[in-house]
Design goal:
It is built from twelve helices and 13 strands. By secondary structure, it is an alpha/beta fold. The longest helix has 15 residues. This is Probable nitronate monooxygenase.
Length: 317
């Protein structure tokens, strides 16, 4: 059976797969372009990037892409520079802006001003309805199985039907999908597309250090934990010396503060902790993960990931 296409605004992805925007500098131009070249939606993680660097990443992704899929950004609403990041991306005419870790009305005015589709990440029906009313082109519905910052402790399979019943815009399901059969299950439930983070974090094109990717492959189900993020949300992470300290309530406090977040508990610096992990420091770095990343046993190129996903989908969808 032919896969459904995912339409967001005026753009169409021929494969209804959205690559999660994973910060800091894990999802950059190379990964986003590779996903778009397979017909999916590739996202550059904008949080933590200076505006000039974000512009360069967007332009590089365009240069590397073949025009088949979509290229957008993901940004944390909790970031102090959120409006500047999404305005920069909108000026560069990205295909979509995905925003999570909070909710902001600013993003809809920016989207309207520049003609860029806005796709909020939500975890409950009331906010989905508000997003649609404010002009969202689609929404990402994220369940507790997702990696990074969590807006809920409920499963995507519990939340998805509720949200599908109250909105008419495309709904992209996120949380826990690793295989083509996982994707098929969510599409069968009525999702227009599926967002996958962990599978693409563990790809050759992901911008993580080799040590980080090796760390992914060694983790077990018991290593998946939740910590309190200074952003104000729970965060799903891999058990490591740093996350263990955070779990126990005594993570190393920052010596200096860059005021990168609108509101921060200052229990630790999440931007620096994520950056250290991305660079391969697994002692003092924070490694975010989806609930099912432990099932991944190979680092694969994006083309092979898509080949396997489509093969599995053809048997399940």
């Amino acid at each position: 059976m032919k896969l459904p296409e995912l339409k967001i605004g005026e753009k169409v992805a021929t494969v209804p797969i959205v690559q999660g925007g994973m910060a800091i500098r894990l999802s950059t131009a190379r990964l986003a372009a590779s996903v778009a070249n397979e017909g999916g939606v590739g996202l550059i993680a904008a949080s933590g990037l200076p505006f000039d660097e974000l512009r360069k990443e967007i332009r590089l992704a365009r240069k590397l892409s073949n025009g088949k899929g979509m290229i957008g950004i993901n940004a944390m609403v909790a970031a102090r520079e959120f409006k500047g990041l999404i305005t920069t991306a909108a000026q560069e005419k990205v295909d979509l802006i995905v925003a999570g870790a909070g909710f902001s009305r600013d993003m809809f005015s920016v989207g309207k001003e520049y003609g860029v589709p806005i796709v909020p990440i939500v975890s409950y029906a009331k906010l989905a309805k508000i997003a649609e009313r404010l002009g969202a082109s689609a929404i990402v519905v994220e369940g507790t199985e997702a990696g990074g910052h969590l807006g809920t402790q409920r499963s995507i399979k519990d939340i998805l039907p509720e949200i599908l019943s109250v909105v008419k815009i495309p709904v992209i399901a996120a949380g826990g999908a690793i295989t083509g059969s996982d994707v098929a299950d969510l599409l069968h439930m009525g999702a227009s597309g599926v967002q996958m983070g962990s599978r693409f974090a563990a790809s050759e094109e992901s911008n993580g250090a080799p040590q980080l990717k090796e760390f992914y492959l060694k983790m077990t189900k018991d290593d998946v934990i939740q910590i309190d993020s200074p952003v104000g949300f729970k965060g799903r992470a891999v058990l490591s010396p740093f996350s263990k300290a955070a779990l126990e309530g005594h993570p190393p406090k920052p010596l200096t503060c860059d005021s990168c977040l609108k509101h921060c508990s200052r229990s630790f610096c999440i931007i620096k902790a994520l950056t250290r992990a991305q660079q391969g420091d697994l002692e003092t770095g924070l490694v975010f993960t989806g609930a099912n990343m432990w099932k991944i046993k190979e680092i694969l190129p994006v083309h092979e990931i898509f080949r396997r996903l489509k093969e599995e989908l053809s048997k399940s969808y």
